[in-house]
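Budget justification aside, the reviewers requested a transparent look at the raw inputs and outputs of the sequence design task funded under Objective 1. We therefore reproduce one unedited record. The lines immediately below are the structure tokens for a 404-residue chain.
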């Protein structure tokens, strides 16, 4: 082979590399130039996919949470002996899923009924004249406070125009916020048919997940076993097991804790004599699903109700009761429920909640802590494996030195 042939081949190879590099750079420049439009298009497709899959996601969550209850009833139904007449209807898993679903529906309907009954009962006890009088008193108190502030500003030779402008801007902001809330509420009411459709399909999909969930999981395992290596299958199995341990323990523990707080606060505030005690208890229980959020709901709502009714004695007593209940829950009940599944520092909890609220709102805050706990678990295992590997390398190095 002549040296010119080698030179030509090398030249062609360099030219090909240059052309490929130029094409890649040009493509990247186009992507960077149109990045906002591309990102907008991708996010639109992702949001559309999430909207389509929303009933499937909610159905999976519904089945995941009800699976322990379904398993409990399935064991009970399997003990029932079926005769020839009932043999066709003897399907323990199906009847267990039906029982768990009916219990959930009864619990939700009962909770909503209690909430509506409590609100309407309290409003029925309130006289229209009393409500009008209370509104007039609030307006008069605000006007008196406003005039007193203006008088004090004039005594101190401070111009009140800036304060009046600030008050006007604040009132405008409050009115705009109220209008936006009203518009969003009307939009939500107009979309109620869509919400009902999503709920209905979520229940149906979740019900079938409850019945055939194990079969679906076994089929997925079969596909993974056929397509993936043994090492990857073991890794997937370990990841799914860890996720199940963290999420199931946390969410189910928080549900039990929320029910405890809901029941306890409703009873205690009712005994004290605070109005809307059941409403405060229900919203505190819902808020307790998010760490540190339930007590805030309890304190603010109780203080607001007591101040509106001018009940300062009950306010003082109820605040002491809430502090005691929160201390019992935070130091004994909550850690007992969550200690088996999740061990995470409060700082990581707060950081997880901040990221969760920024990404997914209420649902993001609800799932932020178990996700943070799983990330912490993976990181700790990674660090432990690195330390173990270094220890093994040290031992091998020591053995090599001894042999020499």
């Amino acid at each position: 082979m002549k040296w010119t042939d080698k030179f030509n081949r090398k030249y062609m190879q360099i030219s090909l590399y240059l052309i490929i590099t130029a094409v890649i750079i040009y493509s990247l420049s186009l992507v960077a130039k149109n990045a906002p439009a591309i990102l907008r298009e991708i996010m639109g497709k992702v949001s559309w996919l999430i909207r389509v899959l929303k009933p499937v996601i909610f159905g999976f969550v519904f089945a995941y949470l009800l699976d322990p209850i379904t398993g409990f009833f399935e064991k009970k139904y399997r003990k029932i002996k079926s005769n020839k007449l009932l043999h066709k209807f003897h399907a323990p898993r199906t009847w267990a899923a039906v029982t768990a679903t009916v219990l959930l529906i009864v619990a939700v309907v009962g909770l909503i009924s209690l909430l509506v009954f409590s609100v309407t009962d309290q409003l029925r006890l309130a006289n229209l004249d009393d409500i009008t009088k209370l509104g007039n008193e609030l307006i008069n108190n605000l006007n008196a406070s406003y005039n007193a502030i203006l008088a004090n500003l004039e005594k101190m030779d401070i111009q009140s125009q800036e304060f009046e402008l600030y008050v006007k801007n604040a009132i405008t902001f409050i009115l705009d916020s109220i209008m936006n809330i009203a518009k969003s509420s009307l939009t939500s009411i107009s979309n109620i048919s869509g919400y009902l459709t999503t709920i209905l399909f979520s229940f149906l999909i979740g019900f079938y997940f409850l019945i055939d969930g194990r079969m679906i999981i076994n089929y997925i395992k079969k596909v993974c076993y056929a397509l993936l290596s043994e090492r990857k299958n073991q890794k997937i199995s370990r990841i799914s097991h860890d996720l199940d341990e963290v999420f199931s323990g946390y969410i189910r523990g928080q549900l039990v804790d929320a029910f405890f707080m809901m029941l306890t606060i409703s009873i205690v505030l009712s005994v004290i004599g605070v109005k809307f005690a059941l409403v405060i208890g229900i919203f505190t229980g819902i808020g307790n699903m998010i760490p540190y959020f339930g007590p805030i709901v309890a304190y603010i709502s109780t203080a607001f109700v007591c101040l509106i009714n001018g009940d300062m004695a009950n306010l003082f007593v109820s605040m002491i009761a809430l502090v005691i209940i929160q201390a019992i829950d935070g130091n004994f009940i909550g850690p007992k429920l969550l200690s088996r599944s999740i061990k995470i520092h409060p700082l990581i909890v707060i950081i997880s909640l901040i990221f969760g609220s920024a990404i997914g709102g209420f649902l993001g805050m609800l799932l932020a802590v178990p996700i943070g706990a799983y990330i912490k678990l993976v990181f700790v295992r990674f660090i432990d494996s690195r330390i173990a590997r270094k220890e093994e390398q040290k031992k091998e190095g020591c053995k090599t030195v001894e042999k020499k």
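The two ends are 51 Å apart (CA to CA). The mean pLDDT is 76. Computational costs for records of this kind are itemized in the attached budget.
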